# Entry
Amino acid sequence: MSKTIDLKPRIQDAIAIIDSWLEYTKIMGTVPGIAAAVVHKDEIVFNKAYGFSNLSTGKQLNKDEAFRIASISKTFTAISILQLVEKGKLRLDDRASDYLEWLVSKNDKSIERITVRQLLTHTSGMRRDGIKNGFWILEEDFLNKDQLIEQIHDTKNPYPNNEKFKYSNFGPSVLGQLIEKVTGITYKEYVEVNIIKPLGLKNTGPDYDRSNASRMATGHGRYIPGKQREEYPHVKTHAMSPATGFYSNTEDLCKYIAAQFLDNDKLIDRESKKEMQRVQWITDDDEIKRGLGCGIWKVDDAKVIGHSGGFPGFITQISWENKNQLGVIVLTNSWDGMAAELADTMFHFLNHIVEKYDDYQENKVSNINKYTGRFTMHAVEVDIRKINQELVAFYLEGNRPLTKPYRLKQISENEFEILSGSEYGYIGEKISYQFDQKGKIKRIHIGAMPYDPFDSVMEKLRDN
# Structure
């Protein structure tokens, strides 16, 4: 996309679709709450909450509430390491044991050879969560420094270093100790001074603090038919904070993502970001690509960078792409939140509309907003929305709704021809509208099938 093109109208059309789709997803799904946002360059262009902060009390979720963002913490740790590399305090290919004399094991000599880069790329060979630890189900506390060191001393890694990608929460926890050793201050102090304060993050911290309890969403267990969702208490993560301890909200994470775009030098310089965000390791099956403290993947044709997070009661995701400087945040407050899938679909909408916007101007529709809406035939729902000067219709199931949308051409005031779309659908047929005396849509037909306005159908179902 050329830098001279104004992306705002494209992004606005995409956000209108994203907002409608997220609202529908919350209504028809079981996730208690969803907070979602979109950032373009350094501007927050969308920020909204859906559903409940706490199911048992009925408290509505608001966009300012903080969530445990779990493994997104690893990106903060990676940024911290790269800042220290820029200052000449360490090098990516240094052995971590050169700084941490305790990073040895009586059972595994390879632990001494682990490098900083390998800890960032999950190629250290270290165990994921140590030995028989119940902290993920809150049966035990997360490990403190002494416990972390003890478990490393007493273990043998599943793999030698630099041989295989194996995701690990121990690796970033070790990096947190490395940051403390090199700087002479605590990990908490370091990230507050060097990341949180420079970006003006007012609702972000490296570990749970009781003073923030009133600003935190409640974490919920997964949906089990016939059972009330379990509620999880907030807990501290101690020495594992660099791997999974952070909390934040959508506004702060928008500011944080903006600092990851290549032209933004608030945290690290362009060259450090290029090193962080390039592929450092690919698994043999080509399924997983890792940078330094982040994942790299494709959404349609866009290269996306980011990280997911999973914590008792929370599933979260941040994602960004550098071509158009767009970022997406999705925070959910339940174990089954599927934040990564939601974020990828948001990127699907953004990428499709931003990149293909000019394709949607041939079949101009007059008074276009008159025909938009969400409609149901009780088994399936369809959205009809504006992209540029055209109307498109698309079904709401699946995670790539605009892969084959119905492109519509107006042939009379209340009738449209379906020019393209799925061959299993109604291409070549018509969409017709019926309006009531107040000018509101009463019913539409897609081909032979009648569809009614979704909101009115849901209202009738609730009344019954």
In short: The chain has two domains: 1-356, 368-463.
